[in-house]
Amino acid sequence: MANPSLSTRLNKAQPYALGLFRIVVGLLFTCHGAASLFGVLGGAGGGGGTVPAGTWPGWYAAVIELVAGVLVLLGLGTRSAAFVASGSMAYAYFTVHQPEGLFPLQNSGEGSALYCWAFLLLVFTGPGALALDRLFAPRGASRSAEEEATAAVAA
């Protein structure tokens, strides 16, 4: 095969693009949690403060953002962390934003909606390349569907 098609080359890069997507989404989510819990990066709501410890739902959401964000960023327990993060953002959308209007553009819920769907995507796709999960996988474990697809494309 002298000149692989663009589709073939993109398929080979897919695990790395997915890994980069996971890293960016995890980093951004982590920043939200850190801002709310520690007052960094503008603090909670951009006002420089923090969310009072133990308050519902803000403090718990911030802890989920920080912990799940770090896990997704590192690719450690990605599917489970992404599932919790997705549910957290669905809860935020439907309890905080949706009562203000039907569509995300009307209720300022774009961030919650996008995070919810981005994390749900990671639940189904897995972490992609560059994930710490791969370091802790048992030797001889069967390859994931993603790795099988990549191997089939390479063949």
SSE map:
Blueprint: H1 6-38, H2 58-74, H3 78-97, H4 104-107, H5 110-125, H6 133-136, H7 145-154
Helix pairs in contact: 1-2, 1-5, 1-7, 2-3, 3-5
Short description:
The protein is mainly alpha-helical and 155 residues long. The chain has 7 helices and no strands.
Q: Which class do the helix and strand fractions yield?
A: mainly alpha
Mean pLDDT level: 88
- Uncertain runs are none
Radius of gyration: 18 Å
What string gives the helices and strands in order?
HHHHHHH
The beta-strand count equals 0
Strand content: under 5%
Largest sheet: none
Shape: globular
| Termini gap | 11 Å
Report the total helices.
7
Helix content: 55-70%
Give a written overview of the molecule.
- The protein has 155 residues and is mainly alpha-helical.
- 67% of the residues lie in helices and 0% in strands.
- It has 7 helices and no strands.
- It has helices at residues 6-38, 58-74, 78-97, 104-107, 110-125, 133-136, 145-154.
- The longest helix is centred in the N-terminal third of the chain and has 33 residues, at 6-38.
- It is globular and about 55 Å long.
- The protein starts with 5 loop residues before the first helix and ends with a helix.
